[in-house]
Amino acid sequence: MAQMSVEEAIRTRRSVRRFLPDPVPRETVEAILALAARAPSGSNIQPWHVVALTGAKLRDLSARLHARALAGERGAWPFYYYPRAWREPYLARRRKIGVDLYRSLGIGKADRAAMAAQHARNLVFFDAPVGLFFALDRDMEIGSWIDLGMFMQSVMIAARGFGLDTCPQAAFAPYHEEIEAFCGLAPDQRLICGMALGRADAAAPENGFETEREPVSAFARFLD
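^ thats the sequence. predicted structure below, dont judge the formating
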């Protein structure tokens, strides 16, 4: 496989919402995690914990969570991920990606059942062959959440270097109690989110649109 530049890996990283069933060797997953572990953390405490699911374990948990989602059991968020009160410009950005995703799938904005079914596909990792869960110790503060974010970004960029794709998923958090028990997390550890890992299904319409990014001038100021 031709080596991918860092620039290309970052530029081509995207949230994939349908994967091929092709298995990913455990050695590849371990190599990705080893590279990602070079991510910075405050005082090098490296606060992250990872559980990787494949095969029967992945299918078992996915089936359970998917059934709960289809039954309308959303669970309770253990923390606030999104703003408690939406406002612009963030509300418009959030709405746009929803519109673009559902339009790619031919789902109308009034078709709540189809939207719910699509959202429930988060719980099967969008059919990816590898599901990753990320956790932190419960006594970690906001700095460790930042550290985990940098680690997860490194996982996603490293995966691109291996020709793989990912989708970071906060959608697992409301089901944290069942996931923590299933994965055998220690009582002092808390689930933060999940991530699908595998090869993108290039023929899937939901993988065919590209999310927009604001220009540098919209979020950065340079002081000389």
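The chain has a mean pLDDT of 97.
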